[in-house]
Amino acid sequence: QVLLMESGGGLAQPGGSLRLSCVVSGFPSFSSKAMSWYRQAPGKERELVARIPSTGDNAWYVPAVRGRFIISRDNTKTTVHLQMNDLKPEDTAMYYCEAPVGHWGQGTQVTVSS
After folding, report:
1. Residue 14: what are its φ and ψ, rounded to 5°?
2. Engineered SS bond to 40: which of 25, 46, 47, 97, CB 3.0-4.6 Å?
3. What CA dihedral angle connects 106, 81, 67 and 13, to 10 degrees?
4. 2, 105 contact by CB (below 8 A)
5. How far is the first Cα of the chain from the last one, in angstroms, to the nearest whole number?
6. Burial of 6 (0-12, 13-18, 19+ CB in 10 A)
7. Counting Cβ atoms within 10 Å, is residue 60 exposed (0-12), middle (13-18) or buried (19+)?
8. Which phi and psi (to 5°) does residue 91 adopt?
9. Which residues touch 108 (CB under 8 Å, ≥6 apart)?
10. Residue 20's closest CA among 95, 93, 91?
11. What pLDDT, in 10s, does the model give residues 43-69?
12. Among residues of the chain, what percentage have pLDDT more than 70?
């Protein structure tokens, strides 16, 4: 079975940074598939935050995080990262890693507050 385990969440001040990691196992096609980060805030629908192609080039970001977040991947280690800079309270959510199609991690909580 496909397993995804997120880590790196926590409490950050506005303007601070966090680096999320997602370790993927049981997914032999990892290096040929796009990977994604989603987030879900209380009372809101889950939204796509960032998606990275298998090559690592031309990643897509939701407009709200463009210029602040960077998605990256290491195909050798079957890991995906989300570097989050200049964090804002609106970034507070549970963040999930996703492998196609519909394989989810347990999530890691990100809270941005003073």
Report:
1. -55, 135
2. 46
3. 60
4. no
5. 40
6. buried
7. middle
8. -80, -10
9. 6, 7, 8, 9, 20, 94, 95
10. 95
11. 999 999 999 999 999 999 999 999 999
12. 100
